[in-house]
Amino acid sequence: MSIALKTPEEIEKMRIAGRLAGEVLDYVEPFVKPGVTTAELDRLCQDYMENVQGCVAAPLNYAPPGYPPYPKAICASVNHQVCHGVPNDRPLKKGDIVNLDITVIKDGWHGDTSRMFVVGNDASILAKRLCAITLECLWLGIGQVRPGAHLGDIGAAIQRHAESHGFSVVREFCGHGIGQHFHEEPQVLHYGKPHTGIVLQAGMTFTIEPMINAGKAAISELADGWTIVTKDRSLSAQWEHTLLVMPGGVEVLTLSAGCPPKPATLP
Ligand code: MF3
Ligand code: CO
Ligand code: CO
């Protein structure tokens, strides 16, 4: 099946949705402190999206085939939770690492981005290293994006970096095309071989969102039907941006004022 290229008018709407998704993370960051619950962070984000930004929270009631409707407005995945963590009433504690994943719909168009937060700005060396290497993985993947590149170039760059640091890449979940639908073609794997997969063209929009584990790659799903955890209960990290393939390279659509920049450690 073919991948729709976005028109200039559609790209303008994707830029707006992307920036707004990033700004939700900017807004919530100061609230991510010891003692806060992920349910409180969910409530804060939903209120901001709906009542300040005039957006719809895409996750709420999202129900792909085989899944129950997602019950919350954001995903909050703590420590060994890999992704799709359902916000709950357990307080965060100093040293936890948490991924907050925000997807907004503005004017019918989606923006999808996630970041890691270190609760109390004090985690183990391993936890901080995992978060940093995973951010490098995201940006190494972004660095592959340009017309003429293959999708497999992205996965290969991510896998190489993660595994060279002794970490593993989750296989069951991937980045995705995005636009008027939350999840569109293509699937963007975070592992693979260079020069394989479809060729990128200007006007494609998709996410890159590597999930990297400190231990083994295997995952399990919790009984809520959504929350994914590492099978060995090792720590997991994830960062995500929504991207646009540009004639000359790539534009990151989910940048915002408070977004961590591309790490200076990278070329
Ligand atoms: N935001 C996630 C992604 O990056 C998807 C979450 S689906 C949900 O693709 F229903 F859990 F929100
Ligand atoms: Co996504
Ligand atoms: Co997301």
> Based on helices, strands and strand pairing, what is the structural class?
alpha+beta
Order of helices and strands: HHEEEEEHHEEEEEEEEEE
The overall strand count is: 15
Number of contiguous helices:
4
Name the CATH superfamily classification.
Creatinase/methionine aminopeptidase superfamily
Proportion in helices: 25-40%
How is this structure best described in words?
By secondary structure, the chain is an alpha+beta fold. The chain has a single domain, classed as Alpha-Beta Complex (Creatine Amidinohydrolase), CATH 3.90.230.10. It has 4 helices and 15 strands. The strands form 5 sheets. Strands 1, 2, 4 and 5 form a 4-stranded antiparallel beta sheet that branches. A 3-stranded antiparallel beta sheet has the order 3-12-11, with no helix packed on it. Strand 14 and strand 15 (249-252) form a beta hairpin. Helix 3 runs antiparallel to helix 4 (151-164). The chain binds 2-amino-4-trifluoromethylsulfanyl-butyric acid and cobalt (II) ion (2 copies). One cobalt (II) ion binds at residues 101, 103, 112, 114, 209, 240. Residues 112, 176, 207, 209, 240 line the site of one cobalt (II) ion (CO).
